[in-house]
Amino acid sequence: MAKAPRKTAEFIDTAGNEIDTVNPNVVTLDKPIKRAGQTIDKVTLIEPNAGTLRGVSLAAVAQSEVDALIKVLPRMTYPALTTQELTAMNLPDMLSLAAKVIGFLSPASRNRLPARPVDR
Question: InterPro entries this protein is in (predicted)?
Answer without folding.
Answer: Phage_tail_E/E
